[in-house]
Design brief:
Number of domains: 1
Strand content: 5-15%
CATH architecture: Alpha-Beta Barrel
Oligomer: single chain
Helix content: 40-55%
Structural class: alpha/beta
Strand order of the largest sheet: 1-2-3-4-5-6-7-8
Number of strands: 8
Radius of gyration: 18 Å
């Protein structure tokens, strides 16, 4: 795979848990990956926000990567979320993911001490991971959960690092996405919001890492293909029905909503891990209704 540029549509896959024991279900993970890749996805991300990464221990994350690598052929991408609260732990998780087979790591900033982290401290954090990790590093901006927004100027300071190659922006703000694209023109830029996928492609982004693709993979793939083929009108038309779907399921209901949507389309979603609350029956019914007409 060396020499081929990362890009396209990737699903930040959910982590399936056994309803009785709470343990990770490797077989269900592999089956979900196989079915999603058959829908045309370019790759899979494990241990991201949608994968409930903060609720997984380090060994579970490492085993998730190894399990996923068994199901993701070498002509598709496998990324792993590896950010942590300490630089030391982020480095350790990034190295472990690389050894287990990840093609790249997606590194969120620390969140607990967010208010104390200066731009310089963030630059040091990402540089340390980039220095130590044997596979490429992507910066992950997810202020909804980390309570820390990574400024475009931080990306500019990281741009010269030979092993930091890109950024995923899950701010949901198209202006921020555009600022990222302008700040690091040579970098890969992935959008994390399914509602902004078409807009991101218009801005010159390389693809999307979309929770929406966990249950509407073919529709995301078709949008990307239409755009790449130069059919902007079709791509934009395909985006429109995905916006309310993304808002109601991904934005409003989070991992529990995505898992319910996967259950509704024949994949294995299952329960979320405590302390995340189970989806209310009314919300589960709403998810099913949203997916029934078009899917």
């Amino acid at each position: 795979m060396s020499g081929r540029r990362f890009g396209g549509v990737l699903a930040p896959i959910t982590t399936p848990f056994d309803p009785a024991t709470g343990d990770v279900r490797p077989g269900a993970l592999r089956q979900n990956i196989t079915l999603l890749l058959e829908a045309g996805l370019d790759g899979i991300v494990v241990a991201g926000s949608t994968g409930e990464a903060p609720l997984l221990d380090a060994d579970e994350q490492r085993r998730l990567v190894a399990c996923a690598r068994d199901a993701v052929p070498r002509d598709r991408w496998l990324f792993a979320g590896t950010g942590a609260e300490s630089t030391r732990e982020a480095v350790a998780r990034s190295r472990a993911a690389a050894v287990a087979g990840a093609d790249a790591v997606l590194v969120r900033p620390p969140g607990y001490f967010a208010a104390a982290l200066t731009p310089a401290a963030l630059v040091d954090y990402f540089r340390a991971v980039g220095d130590a990790c044997p596979v490429p590093v992507l910066v992950y901006n997810i202020p909804k959960y980390t309570h820390l927004a990574i400024a475009p100027a931080v990306l500019e300071q990281l741009a010269a690092h030979p092993n930091i190659l890109g950024v995923k922006d899950s701010s949901g703000d198209v202006k921020n996405l555009g600022a990222y694209r302008a700040a690091v023109p040579e970098w890969l830029v992935f959008v994390g919001s399914g509602s902004l996928f078409y807009a991101a492609l218009e801005l010159g982004c390389d693809g999307g890492i979309l929770a929406l693709a966990c249950f509407a993979a073919r529709r995301c793939v078709d949008l990307f293909a239409a755009f790449r083929a130069g059919d902007r009108a079709r791509a934009e038309a395909l985006q429109q029905p995905l916006i309310p779907l993304n808002k109601a399921i991904v934005s409003e209901l989070g991992a529990a909503g995505v898992k319910a949507a996967m259950d509704a389309v024949g994949l294995t979603g299952g329960p979320v891990r405590a302390p995340l609350p189970a989806l209310a029956p009314a919300d589960r019914e709403r998810v099913v209704r949203l997916l029934t007409p078009g899917d």
